[in-house]
TrEMBL record:
One of its GO terms (molecular function) is electron transfer activity. This is Cytochrome c domain-containing protein. InterPro entries: Cyt_c-like_dom, Cyt_c-like_dom_sf, Cyt_C_IC. SUPFAM superfamilies: Cytochrome c. The keyword Transmembrane helix does not apply. Keywords: Electron transport, Heme, Iron, Metal-binding, Transport. The keyword Heme applies. Residues 26-102 form the Cytochrome c domain. It comes from Rugosibacter aromaticivorans.
Amino acid sequence: MPQNPSWQPAVATSVAPVVAGAAAPEAIKQGRRVYASTCARCHGVNMVNTGASTFDLREFPLDQKARFVQSVLHGKGAMPAWEGSVTPEEVEALWAYVSTRQTP
């Protein structure tokens, strides 16, 4: 899978990384905010959608974070690329939120 050399994980961030399936509560909160402003219009409010026209993110395989990051940054199918519109920290926070499957 080709990686864009301009995107590098941040060395020091204010968002705690997801480690072994456990994300810091603040990372999840930030991910929820980013999701609401960036992703919800297509993937559904609080990740709740029918899955008919867009991927149901509550079913995203937890062992495929690299695929998630690739899709967010470079797009896939009808999904636009978000590289340059979201920061690496925001992508990490999105993964923290999506990987929890939390729907308030």
